Amino acid sequence: GGRVNRFNILKQSKDYDVDGAYCRLWCPELAGVPPPKVHTPWQLSRTEQEQYGVAVLPPGAPAEAAGGKPTYPTPIAIEQSRGDG
Questions:
Q1: Would the pTM of this model clear 0.70, i.e. be above it?
Q2: CA distance 81 to 22
Q3: Cα 54 from Cα 29, distance rounded (Å)
C-alpha cells in the first residue's frame, strides 16, 4: 500500500502563481497573456493570440505560421483532471 501522491501542475500553478509571474519568467513569450489564461495558453482562441501577441502552434510548425509573433507550443498530451485536486 502506501499513499499515492498526484501532482497536478495546472492546479499548483493556479494556486501558487496566481498572477502568472513565474510562468512568464520561464516562458517570456507569454508576457502579454493575462492571468489566469497564462496557465493554459494552448486554450487561447486565435483572437486572443492576436490580442496578447503570441502564436500557439504545434511543435515543428513553420515559423511563418507565427506571423512574426513569439510562439508557444501546443501540448503533446494533456492529462485530464481526476477531480482529486
A1: yes
A2: 22
A3: 7
